[in-house]
Amino acid sequence: TVSLLAFALTTTFAKADPKGCDDGEIVIKFSHVVAATGHPKGDAATLLAKRVNEEMDGKACMQVFPNSTLFDDDKVMEALLLGDVQLAAPSLSKFEAYTLKYRLFDLPFLFESLDAVSRFTRSDEGKGLLKVMEGVGYTGLGYWSSGLKQFSANKPLLLPADAKGLKFRIQTSDVAEAMIEAMGGSAQKLAFKEVYGALQTGVVDGQENTWSNIYTQKFFEVQDGVTETNHQLLAYLLVTSTDWLNGLDPEVRDQFLKIADEVTQEANARVAEVEQKNRQNIIDAGGKVRELTPEQREKWVETMKPVWDQFKGDIGQDLIDAAVASNK
Ligand code: LMR
Q: Which pLDDT belongs to residue 19?
């Protein structure tokens, strides 16, 4: 009876705890740095786990660790190779140590809309870029869009010249650094989980991110306002270890890849709506959003676009041309 009771309890708890995996199931741990809900990546990760856990029950089990609770984006790349996690989705700005090709996605004012991003990522060039890191052990499973980025600072920013002398937190991206320098500001690379504190204590004056990150991380609470620049893309690479993927039973792998692909499409189709909602959430919560006139926006474009020249050698003109062509 005791063991029966113990068995009943374990089963009950296993069901009640979404992280509980059964013996014999392949455990797929997914670590990311953003909010678990109300955010394009958080929601996509949850959806992926739900589908894997329902449809691959008995074969595989996915556990999601949001909010940098397990690893930050630097550490997660090592953790993938060590087998401590099997999935991650760092932004494309964070792969500089592994490939310089992804600098493409960081070029300011490259993509005019999220639809253009979808067209590019579905093109041969976009798909080819999923595989550029296989030599160093990583395979991209898909691109998860997160939105276009906006600037915020501790003073009003209407023209790039307003950023002169200010220090901005950036991701680990040399393109972002060049962009901030072109504005006359200085850049500091910081992990995502440190941004709120750095803004609050004045370690940095400003930052650039999507509506969803600015809202869910509450950055707007410690900034004067957010300027709607839409200057650059934030998108993620859903990434795994090439060895881990190749080691899966072919049938399991195919089922998993099919689910990942469907979730990618479904999540990307919702991003624009989630972003607009979080923009409105900022306003409803008392945050200030500044819109630019076409003339003001043109100044941002003029200031930042020359940065492309510095990186076209790393990226390749052919890829830049293909990305630009996706705007039409
Ligand atoms: C950042 O570091 O600002 C972003 O890459 C965080 C994220 O994952 O959206």
A: 60
Give the 3-state secondary structure of residue 109: coil
Q: Is the dihedral of CA 147, 151, 157, 161 positive or negative?
A: negative
What letter would DSSP give residue 325? H
Residue 266, both tokens? 């479904």
**Measured distance CA(284)–CA(176) in Å, rounded:** 30
Task: Tell me how far the alpha carbon of residue 193 lies from the centroid of ligand 1, in angstroms.
Answer: 9
| Whole-complex ipTM | 0.98
Q: How far is the CA of 43 from the centre of ligand 1 (A)?
A: 15
Q: Virtual CA dihedral for 65, 67, 71, 75, nearest 10 degrees?
A: 130
| pLDDT tens figures, 80-128 | 999 999 999 999 999 999 999 999 999 999 999 999 999 999 999 999 9
pLDDT in tens, 219-267: 999 999 999 999 999 999 999 999 999 999 999 999 999 999 999 999 9
Amino acid at 290: R
For residue 76 and ligand 1, the question of a CB distance below 6 A is answered with no
| Residue 146 in contact with ligand 1 by CB distance below 6 A | yes
The pTM (predicted TM-score) of the whole model is 0.93
Asked if 96 contacts 175 with a C-beta cutoff of 8 angstroms, the reply is no
Cα R_g (the chain), whole angstroms:
21
Q: How confident is the model at residue 172 (pLDDT cuts 50, 70, 90)?
A: very high
CA distances from 106 to 24, 66, 172, 235, 305 (A): 41, 24, 11, 9, 11
Q: Which of 188, 226, 225, 192 is nearest to 204 (CA)?
A: 188
Question: What stretch of H or E contains 233?
Answer: strand 233-241
Biggest alpha carbon distance in the chain?
A: 78
Q: Which residue among 73, 177, 208 has the greatest number of ligand 1 atoms within 8 angstroms of its CB, and so is best to mutate? A: 73
Best residue among 30, 92, 171 to mutate for probing ligand 1's pocket (most ligand atoms within 8 Å of CB) is 171
Which ligand 1 atom lies nearest to the CA of residue 192? 2
